[in-house]
């Protein structure tokens, strides 16, 4: 096996190497086009072309050169792929256009280091082969879910939500889909370099996706589906937290719900009640009485002030939460993953000048993180797993919340990103979580995208964005567990590590090709 890898290395050494500026520019372009593979564009083939170009650019490069090439790729990936942050920073954060762009560029420079380090490690320690490039890609995607609290966005697997390769999701999760995508991308480069044997594993992976699609892990319970109404209030973000607009916000949601009492479940989105429960006890009690009288469960997003915990801690403890009440329903879920600069400002005393428009926003007062392994909400005697906004981007967190649940709910407020690709990318992640866990997902949002998503990750119903809407549908309870729900990300992570150990063990004697004479 060492002889095989030595042959690969000598082959790459013999190739004529272009000046470094060319692969850097190609990598920058490759990263920039990646997000077009995701919602709302859905050019899925770019999710193969983009990493394929990066893989090709790294051929025969030193580890230091690979770091620069990978960084260029990461900068292009994050600057374009997460440019939807501009709306929240500039429009709602009251930051100048120039400084907003600079902040996004800084974010891209920082997040781009993931790709830079990934490419450095690849060329420094491992042979040039898809069997080392793909595992590293997956491990670095996984790292984005926890390093510095995580920013788990722009994964390759999301490009195939509702497409052929998503059949791997119930087995191995989004990282399993990403692994297959990157193998196919690298194999394309190898085949174009006349290593035609890579057509065989590519065909096997494609055939495996077909086989996985024939498997069934969950089934609908022999119970009547719940009738559900999702309420989209369309409250502008710049008005949402104003004191003088709070009563109007409650009236908008209450009026939209008037015709829905009597259905099994009514869901209001994240922070649709823009006040702490201690400030509107009479309103909450009136809603509970109305829900019980009409035989309806009511679920709403609300900022929750835990008085008992606050007294014990000696300071106020606020939570971004989902509350269930009404007929045969109760429970409270406290958000576990908080968004930096969205639900709290890190080092707020030092950074108050960066986002001046957010300093007086009650949502920025400093939410507390909810504990792990919370009980699901009880809705009409069904366990309802919860996720608030950004939490659905975390595969393992959603998996934990989905366990022991009949169906899932996520509430969100994407008004921060109105008119951008952000809300649609967010919805795509919800679809992947539904597929991974074999559960229906209902999604209630302030401005969109409000939707019903089935256990296969398909959108059954979707409300128009930026409108006041009541979206009605049915929610079946599911039973059974997917392999991903049982085993989490461990199978694909362990397999990736094993491949890297084999590649490192049988690596060529000098993997880090220096090219000093060409510098």
Shape: globular
Strand order of the largest sheet: 6-5-4-3-2-13
Largest sheet: 6 strands, mixed
- Top-tier CATH class of the largest domain: Alpha Beta
**CATH homologous superfamily annotation of the largest domain:** Carbon-nitrogen hydrolase
Helix content bin: 40-55%
Q: Cα distance, first to last residue? A: 32 Å
Mean of the pLDDT scores?
A: 90
User: How many domains would you count in the coordinates?
Assistant: 2
Beta-strand content bin? 5-15%
Q: Could you give the count of β-strands?
A: 14
Structural class: alpha/beta
- Which stretches of 5+ consecutive residues score pLDDT under 50? 8-15, 357-364, 512-519
Query: What fold name goes in the CATH topology slot of the largest domain?
Result: Nitrilase/N-carbamoyl-D-aminoacid amidohydrolase
Rg to the nearest angstrom? 24 Å
CATH architecture of the largest domain: 4-Layer Sandwich
Enzyme class: transferase
Main location: membrane
Membrane topology: Multi-pass membrane protein
Function: Catalyzes the phospholipid dependent N-acylation of the N-terminal cysteine of apolipoprotein, the last step in lipoprotein maturation.
Key terms for this structure?
519 residues; alpha/beta; Nitrilase/N-carbamoyl-D-aminoacid amidohydrolase; six-stranded mixed sheet; 18 helices; 14 strands; 45% helix; globular; cell membrane
Write the layout of secondary structure elements.
Blueprint: H1 2-14, H2 21-34, H3 46-57, H4 63-81, H5 85-92, H6 97-125, H7 130-143, H8 169-192, H9 199-213, E1 219-220, E2 226-232, H10 237-240, H11 246-257, E3 265-267, H12 281-294, E4 297-305, H13 307-313, E5 318-326, E6 331-334, H14 348-351, E7 377-379, E8 382-388, H15 395-402, E9 407-412, H16 422-437, E10 441-445, E11 451-453, E12 459-462, E13 469-475, E14 478-479, H17 483-487, H18 490-505
Parallel strand pairs: 2-3, 3-4, 8-9, 9-10
Antiparallel strand pairs: 1-14, 2-13, 4-5, 5-6, 7-8, 10-11, 11-12
Helix pairs in contact: 2-3, 2-4, 3-8, 4-6, 5-6, 6-7, 7-8, 7-18, 8-9, 8-16, 8-18
